[in-house]
Amino acid sequence: MPRTAAAPPARKVPLRKLLRAASVARGVQFGWALQLSLLTPYVQELGILHAFASLVWLCGPLSGLLVQPLVGHLSDRIAPAASPLGRRRPFIAAWPATANDAALHIATSRRCCCMLAFSYCIFFLQFV
């Protein structure tokens, strides 16, 4: 009968490390709670009908479905393998900045659209 190797004893995880991991999860949950409670009223304030608000909810999963494989492919092809940061870390570091920029654009979209429409009206009225 063959002998099987005994499993190594489980390491005890320090409480400080568990609290750090739990604080990250808590931050993610706060973010989801804010999004779930505020997104639909906010997009309705922007003029999207309640019936189409569910399409706004689909944007996140659909963009993840399309963007994540594309970013993985690009990071494998574009980033140099000998980079001290590795192939994926520059892309992972750039993503929060891009998401933050997109969130700021969403927050100011009504004001920006009004200014853009006003500037187009001024531009076209010059030629009338």
From TrEMBL:
Protein's UniProt keywords contain tRNA-binding: no
Membrane topology, as annotated: Multi-pass membrane protein
Functional pathway: Glycan biosynthesis; sucrose metabolism
Cell compartment(s), UniProt: Membrane
Segments passing through the bilayer: none
Keyword Transferase: no
InterPro entries: MFS_trans_sf
Family: Belongs to the glycoside-pentoside-hexuronide (GPH) cation symporter transporter (TC 2.A.2.4) family.
Chief location: membrane
Name listed for the protein in its UniProt record: Major facilitator superfamily (MFS) profile domain-containing protein
Keywords linked to the UniProt accession: Membrane, Sugar transport, Symport, Transmembrane, Transmembrane helix, Transport
A GO-annotated cellular component: membrane
Entry superkingdom: Eukaryota
SUPFAM superfamilies registered for this protein in UniProt: MFS general substrate transporter (SSF103473)
Single annotated GO MF: symporter activity
